[in-house]
## 1
Amino acid sequence: MKESENQIAGEAPVARYIYCVLSGEARDWQLRGLDGQVVRAVCAAGLTALVHDCPPEPYQGDEERVKSWVLCHSDVVDAAWERYGTVLPLGFDTIVRPGDGLDADERVMQWLTSEGHRFRGMLERLRGKVELGVQVIWDQRVVGESVAQVNDEIRLLRAEMTSKPKGLAYFYQQKIERALRQAIETKAEEDYRSCFRQVTTLFPEVLSNDLKKLPGRLMIVNLSVLAPRERVSELGAVLAGFQTEGVEVRFTGPWPPYSFARTPASETVFDQEAGQAGVPGGDPKLSP
């Protein structure tokens, strides 16, 4: 961006950091955002964007400071969500800069107007709904042994290994480990599909996220679920059936629907740096 685009009538460059978009013109806010900045409303086309004034550069800092910014961003979105029930949360570090002869407020208003129909449709779709997180995590030692005990190939190899000399027993152990890895992968795929089917039968709008690496444990399910607020307990009842020895089920939320609020980001209106807030989607290692 040219320097002249960052300046308005000789004033210092000022941009707008956006937290979320909500329906209606809600101007009365008493919130503090990142670094204690005053959060205020910019309204247009029957919509409100919650913003604070900021420099035109992305927020950068060490890991701890970025974490505190992300948490503060979430706190503002949560406050708006609790007050209005439905919001379109934007990712961390979404910044609107002045340009094209418009100041930053005018560009936010331009964006709300140009995307107004889409945003109102998204807000209506998300009305009364929350985002829930579902993760299923295995203790690899416990689940691995459980898998081995019911696998005919592994049981036969273990039995044969007991009568073999030490050198040959080593090769049997390698066969057992390969067979166990394959059996664990098969069970993980089966359990993922079972969980995915049961969750989507209850709530069809589900996103499958990247599986996280955990020391000594194996994550086999990582879902974001969009559900009506009053039906959250129904998902908990379904997930209780997956809780067995060596299997941890994490059921988190409710949150504002970050993963389901994919707002169109026009580069001519605002720039969004790589965000760290919300629950990101991705290509699952195990797909339904």
## 2
Amino acid sequence: MAYVRVDDNEPLEKSIKRFKRMVEKEGIIREWKKREYYEKPSTIRNRKNKAMERKQMKKNRKLHSSKG
């Protein structure tokens, strides 16, 4: 269960943001980011491929740095 303690001098907006982050982190509510524009399928595919490449490079770097 997510709860946030609010100090007397803390702005309400700040505490709401903290609560929102905590709820998202715990997986109670997920905020879906909507695309406000059309994205071509090839662009989506390229973005996903680049993300996969970055993930693989990071994994390789981590693997090689722990060995050496």
